[in-house]
Structure formats: C-alpha cells, structure tokens
Amino acid sequence: MVCLPFRAIPKPVIAIAGATLLFGTATPLLKILVDGMAPLVLLALLALGSGVGLLCWRIAGGSRPTNLRPPVSQRERYLLAGTVIVGGFVAPVTQCFALTVTPAATAALLLNFEIVATVMLAFRVFHEPADKMTGFSLLLIFAGSILLAWSGESALGISLGAFGIILSGFFWGIDNNCMAHITAYSPDLIGLYKVIFGGSIAAAFVIVLGEPLPGVNLIALALLTGFFSFGFGLILFIVALRDMGAARAGAIYAAAPFIGCIASLFIFSDTLGSQFWLALPLFTAGALLVIREQWKLGCPSTTNGPTKKDLQKKESL
Q: What is the spatial distance between Cα 79 and Cα 176, in angstroms, rounded to a whole number?
C-alpha cells in the first residue's frame, strides 16, 4: 500500500490527526485536574477555557458566513440539541466522575469503547458503510473493554469507575454521530453552543452545592486544557467528521486513547494489574485493524506511486 506525501494528504485527515493528538493528551491532564477539584468545577472551567478558544477561532476568521449554507431543517435542530445536551454535559460529566475512581491509563484504554459506539451507531442508525473486518476489529475492542472493566468484587461484575468510562464512551459516540450530520451550523458555533450549555449547567450546580474552587495553578491548567483540547480540538474534530463521516473519522481517532495511555504511564505511578496487560493487545489489534481498513479507502493502490489523477481525487475527498 502506497500512501501520499504530506502535501497531498487531505485536510480532513490532518484535522483528525490534530484532534486526536489534542484529545489524547487531555486524558492524563483531566486525571490530574479531577484529583484536585470537584468534577462539576472542572467541567465549568473546561467550558470556559474551550469557549475562549472557540471565540479566538471566530475572531481569527476561522468561521466565515456563506450564502451557500443550507437552511436549518427540523432534523438538524434535533441533531444540534442532541450534541449540545449529550456532548456538552452528559458525556463529559460522566467521564469526569468516572475518572475520580479510575487509573488514568486504564481510563484511556477504556475510552476505546467510543470507537465501538461511534462506528456501530454510524452503521446502524445513519447507514454509513462498514465491512466484516471493521466488525471484527470492533469485537476485539469490545472484548478488551469487558476484560479491562471486569471486577469480581462488583455485583454487576464490572467496576463502577470502568462502567462510567464505558458509558461516557457510548455518550461520546452519540455526540460524534450527531455532529457528523450537522451542516447548517459552523463547527465553532456548534462548539460554542455545547460549552455554553454544559458550562452553564455545571456552574449552576457548583453555586448551588457550594463547591470550593481549587488553587490558581489547577485553574490555569484546566483553562488551558479546555482552550486547546476542547476548543481547537473540537473544531478540528467536527471538520473531520463532516468530510470523512463518523465511522472513518472515529477509526483514525482510535489512536487518541493510546496517546493518553502512553502519556499516563509516564506521568502516573499507578499499579497496573494483569487485566490491563491482557486487554492492551486486544485494544491495539482492534484499533490498528479499524485504522487500516479506513485508511485503505484514502490511499491509492498503485505499485508505482500516486498518479496526478489519484492526487486530484484524493484532494477532492
């Protein structure tokens, strides 16, 4: 398989690569932050930071109005409401609470379940294409999730923290598919709707419950994480979702949990049991298979390198 030079790589692939890096490095940062403040305080600070990032993008000219934008349909209003509610509040607050009782490296690997949820919903609900190899790779990731989450001490057989991470992955899958099918709103505007809704709800709970604020250093780290990972990263992710579809973008995004896992292993000294090391090959094999199958759709199959026609076709995707 011959891949294209960097200048010929489509912009959606560059966008999803940037989003993957930003989201992947966010997991260990979130673990540091959630250990130093209440999850709802963290969510409010992340929303504030990402909102500033999204506004900076708009001011810099990242979103330009156009008369070619389609009118807002009833379906797109429902999709926008879904991504704002689920992606703006339900998914992040579930993940933040689950992180309080889950090691960072384990949580990063369990977030691979987002890939399963994203691709399965894209296939079953939105009728995006999928093949048998993709199905097999998702089965490997699902098996790894069950193995990593299994706990004989729990009545359900799954630890509460692991179940929360898996549940947040399912919510992120709903969010991804909703965003992928919204075309009447710019990516930064969708992001602003999400952070305003989620941040406002979280801030209201913080005030009502009287949650204490953390130190200045943690506040600064939370704002910067929101600014880059959930501000710029969200815009890049929405751009990729629109141009590649939720299934293909979600496949490349499979690298994000491994980036988070590697970073977590360097940052934290958590003791990782045999379940982690047994599940790791399943996650790795599943993610690599998904990426391989989806990447084959974007690389020419010639043996003598890409032709001019191949490059033009690739740039048009």
A: 10
Q: Residue 202 — pLDDT band, cuts 50, 70, 90? A: very high
Buried b (16+ CB within 10 A) or exposed e, 3-25: ebeeeebbebbebbbbbbbbbbb
DSSP secondary structure of 191-212: HHHHHHHHHHHHHHHHHHHTPP
d(CA 155, CA 171): 23
Query: What pLDDT does 200 receive?
Result: 94
Break the chain into its structural domains and give their ranges.
10-62+71-297
Q: Find, among 161, 236, 217, 223, the residue nearest to 195 by Cα.
A: 223
Segment 215-226 mean pLDDT: 95
Query: In whole angstroms, what is the distance from residue 90 CA to residue 168 CA?
Result: 8
Beta bridge partners of 158: 150
Alpha-carbon gap, residue 141 to 139, rounded angstroms: 5
Give the pLDDT confidence of 229-276 residue by residue, as tens digits.
988 898 888 888 888 777 677 767 778 888 888 888 888 876 667 888
pTM: 0.79
